[in-house]
Design goal:
Layout lengths: L16 H20 L17 H17 L1 E2 L2 E2 L2 H13 L3 E3 L5 E3 L9 H17 L8 H4 L3
Antiparallel strand pairs: 1-2, 3-4
Helix pairs in contact: 2-3, 2-4
Amino acid sequence: MSDVILHEPVSELITAGEWAKAAFRRTWDAAAAALDAGLAGELTWKPKKATRSVQANACMWAHLADIARQVDWYGEKLSKEDWKEVVSAGLRKQRAVRGMEGGFVVLGARTSRMSIKEMAAMTELILAFGAQQGVKFTAPAWMWGDE
């Protein structure tokens, strides 16, 4: 009975040049082993729009939580999730349509698909709006780049 070596596909999201070299090295090593074992392969490079980092996401939610705690919006307290929708709708100039049971639904407010540049604009809008409303932001120093 011979030993069977399984060769798994290699798939990685590459977001920086330094990571690319290491990722390509791992891919080359896996490909070389598979080729030596008599297997063929397929190589694909698929460019993707980079999205926000985990840190940028944490920063956004910390700022939105501060706004939710400190701002009354036309006599109503909104959740941080509600504020995310309000700010992203303002950033993207979205449309609102009537809901099926009344009220309104904002169309197209998906922060998970924002580019890094759009996310930076979102954060700037959050901070500007908060400043206009007198919000005292409480995010940790690392979120401000003041470490």
